[in-house]
């Protein structure tokens, strides 16, 4: 059967790995050989366990770029990945090509891997985008900005795209490939698999897109061990470097709620300090299917995978975004009324106990989330993954990538 490379270059959290793992398992079940090239190896063993996948470190930009303002769109994100330095970018592209040559895949899927996409232009191998809506941005000219609710200066957007396109085309020339006419051509592939649903698209108003649905294994992980103290159950997926972590933990102890917290990498001292009659910490990832069935409210940093799994299970959320992608997700959930958003730039002293209490006690939040869940009551994640695997097999059978890539 076929060898399939599933690559992830940019972004964090479990979402990328879980997406690749879930599709990879289905492809493996069909007799194919999925191979993973990933940005971070930190959680690979915990999540993959005994899965028989070969895993490689993806070629990534390890340098730093100083003096840039906060990125307002795709082009300015690429500036931080080596696209400002054609020689460095060329070296990264050659590393990607060396990996592809060594592995000899019959299909490549890219989950937020812009350098991998650039490097593989012109190779006689079918390619597909595979990721969240943020990882598969609209192919417009100019490309959309991140803060769609505020807008950004058009001159700055266009200037950034010109600079990045120039760097990318210089690298392509050194690889012996023709130039791109516009930055959006970087996303020119044989299939765009947006593993999301339209109402959770981080780029609202997108046209002409096909949404394949979220790819996640909701039964991966351990069962939540809820404290016996607390009238309702709250699940929190938090990062140890969250600036208000201790303030939030103290607030949760004051609630009449049984709370399970997964905070990968949290110190043993913090766990001992904040474990209480109504607070329990889970060192291992928690099974989100169980959380969706058992919890009343979720707390997270607005990672799209966690958000979609809980809202489609009818659970309202307290959203604590730490970067723009998460803010884009949080804005959508808050706008639909299925959660409360804490904007770190505007909410300098949030009252976390009051916010969680509102979600637990005000019925409108749960009602909105349950209305969303009702639209997915007949949704079968396994069938969704099977459809994506079917499309992968079709791309392999077709064999020849689209003409614009060669």
Topology:
Elements (H helix, E strand, L loop, with lengths): L2 E6 L6 H15 L3 E6 L5 H5 L5 E4 L16 H10 L2 H18 L3 E5 L2 H6 L7 E5 L22 H21 L16 E4 L37 E6 L7 H9 L3 E6 L5 H7 L4 E3 L6 H7 L2 E4 L3 H8 L5 E3 L4 H13 L2 E3 L10 H10 L1 H12 L6 H18 L8
Parallel strand pairs: 1-2, 1-4, 2-3, 4-5, 5-6, 7-8, 7-10, 8-9, 10-11, 11-12
List keywords for this structure.
single chain; Rossmann fold; 406 residues; globular; six-stranded parallel sheet; 39% helix; alpha/beta
Structure, briefly:
The chain is of the alpha/beta class and 406 residues long. It has helices spanning 15-29, 44-48, 74-83, 86-103, 114-119, 154-174, 245-253, 268-274, 288-294, 304-311, 324-336, 352-361, 363-374, 381-398, and strands at residues 3-8, 33-38, 54-57, 107-111, 127-131, 191-194, 232-237, 257-262, 279-281, 297-300, 317-319, 339-341.
Question: Can you offer a commentary on this structure?
Answer:
The chain is α/β, with parallel strands linked by helices and 406 residues long. It folds into two domains: 3-189, 3-Layer(aba) Sandwich (Rossmann fold), CATH 3.40.50; 232-374, Rossmann fold (3-Layer(aba) Sandwich), CATH 3.40.50.2000. 39% of the residues lie in helices and 14% in strands. The chain is built from 14 helices and twelve strands. The chain has helices at residues 15-29, 44-48, 74-83, 86-103, 114-119, 154-174, 245-253, 268-274, 288-294, 304-311, 324-336, 352-361, 363-374, 381-398, and strands at 3-8, 33-38, 54-57, 107-111, 127-131, 191-194, 232-237, 257-262, 279-281, 297-300, 317-319, 339-341. The protein has a six-stranded parallel beta sheet with strand order 3-2-1-4-5-6. A six-stranded parallel beta sheet has the order 9-8-7-10-11-12, sandwiched between helices. It is globular. The mean pLDDT is 93.
């Amino acid at each position: 059967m076929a060898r399939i490379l599933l690559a992830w270059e940019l972004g964090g959290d479990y979402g990328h790995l879980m997406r690749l793992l879930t599709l990879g398992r289905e492809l493996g079940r069909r007799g194919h050989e999925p191979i993973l090239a990933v940005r971070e190896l930190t959680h690979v063993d915990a999540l993959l366990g005994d899965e028989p996948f070969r895993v490689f470190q993806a070629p990534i930009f390890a340098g730093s770029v100083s003096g840039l303002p906060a990125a307002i769109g795709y082009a300015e994100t690429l500036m931080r990945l080596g696209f400002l330095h054609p020689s460095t970018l060329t070296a990264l592209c050659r590393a990607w090509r060396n990996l592809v040559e060594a592995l000899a895949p019959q299909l490549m899927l890219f989950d937020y891997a812009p350098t991998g996409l650039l490097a593989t232009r012109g190779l006689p191998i079918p390619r597909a985008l595979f990721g969240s809506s943020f990882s598969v941005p609209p192919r417009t000219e100019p490309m959309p900005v991140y803060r769609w609710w505020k807008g950004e200066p058009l001159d700055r957007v266009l200037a950034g795209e010109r600079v990045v396109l120039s760097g990318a085309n210089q690298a392509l020339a050194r690889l012996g490939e023709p130039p791109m006419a516009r930055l959006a051509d970087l996303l020119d592939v044989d299939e765009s698999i947006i593993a999301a649903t339209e109402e959770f698209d981080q780029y609202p108003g997108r046209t002409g897109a096909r949404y394949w649905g979220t790819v996640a294994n909701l039964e991966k992980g351990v069962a939540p061990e809820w404290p016996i103290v607390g009238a309702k159950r709250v699940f929190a997926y938090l990062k140890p470097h969250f600036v208000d972590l201790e303030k939030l933990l103290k607030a949760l102890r004051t609630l009449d709620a049984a709370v399970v917290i997964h905070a990968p990498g949290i110190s043993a001292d913090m766990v001992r300090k904040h474990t209480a009659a109504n607070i329990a910490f889970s060192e291992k990832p928690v099974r989100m299917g169980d959380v969706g069935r058992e919890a009343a409210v979720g707390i997270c940093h607005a990672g799209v995978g966690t958000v979609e799994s809980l809202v489609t299970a009818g659970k309202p959320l307290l959203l604590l975004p730490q970067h723009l992608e998460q803010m884009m997700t949080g804005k959508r959930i808050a706008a639909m009324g299925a959660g409360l958003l804490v904007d770190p730039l505007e909410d300098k002293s949030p009252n976390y106990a009051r916010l969680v209490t509102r979600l637990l006690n005000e019925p409108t939040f749960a009602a909105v989330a349950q209305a969303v869940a009702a639209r997915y009551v007949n949704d079968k994640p396994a069938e969704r993954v099977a459809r994506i695997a079917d499309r992968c097999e079709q791309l392999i059978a077709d064999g020849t990538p689209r003409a614009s890539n060669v």
